[in-house]
UniProtKB/TrEMBL annotation:
<dbReference type="Pfam" id="PF02617">
    <property type="entry name" value="ClpS"/>
</dbReference>
<comment type="similarity">
    <text>Belongs to the ClpS family.</text>
</comment>
<dbReference type="GO" id="GO:0008233">
    <property type="term" value="F:peptidase activity"/>
</dbReference>
<dbReference type="InterPro" id="IPR003769">
    <property type="entry name" value="ClpS_core"/>
</dbReference>
<dbReference type="GO" id="GO:0006508">
    <property type="term" value="P:proteolysis"/>
</dbReference>
<comment type="function">
    <text>Involved in the modulation of the specificity of the ClpAP-mediated ATP-dependent protein degradation.</text>
</comment>
<dbReference type="InterPro" id="IPR014719">
    <property type="entry name" value="Ribosomal_bL12_C/ClpS-like"/>
</dbReference>
<dbReference type="InterPro" id="IPR022935">
    <property type="entry name" value="ClpS"/>
</dbReference>
<feature type="domain" description="Adaptor protein ClpS core">
    <location>
        <begin position="21"/>
        <end position="92"/>
    </location>
</feature>
<keyword id="KW-0378">Hydrolase</keyword>
<protein>
    <recommendedName>
        <fullName>ATP-dependent Clp protease adapter protein ClpS</fullName>
    </recommendedName>
</protein>
<keyword id="KW-0645">Protease</keyword>
<comment type="subunit">
    <text>Binds to the N-terminal domain of the chaperone ClpA.</text>
</comment>
Length: 98
């Protein structure tokens, strides 16, 4: 048996495979409406994060203006962002940096 030939790497390639390999992120943004305790509650309830992690993420949202709350496949990150919207939080999906 012979191995299948491999294609040479193409620098700067941004096809779907490359985007999937890098992954996606759900980002929660600071807002003037929700209490910090509520944001912790959402992170613990929806993501199942322990109190310490939920509080650390909430503080990043509060002090830095945003926090990455999940990373993974684009479809899953879109579901997470929609769930955050359903809880009344501001959230977006973005490609994970290289």
């Amino acid at each position: 048996m012979t191995a299948a030939p491999t294609l040479p790497a193409v620098e700067g390639r941004t096809d779907e495979h490359t985007r999937r390999a890098r992954g996606w992120q759900t980002v929660v943004w600071n807002d003037p409406v929700n209490l910090m305790s509520y944001v912790v509650h959402v992170f613990r309830t929806y993501f199942g994060y322990p109190r310490e992690r939920a509080e650390r993420l909430m503080l990043a949202v509060h002090h830095d203006g945003h926090a990455v709350v999940a990373e993974g496949a684009r479809e899953q990150m879109e579901l997470h962002a929609q769930a955050m919207h359903d809880y009344g939080l501001w959230a977006t999906v973005r490609e994970a940096p290289e």
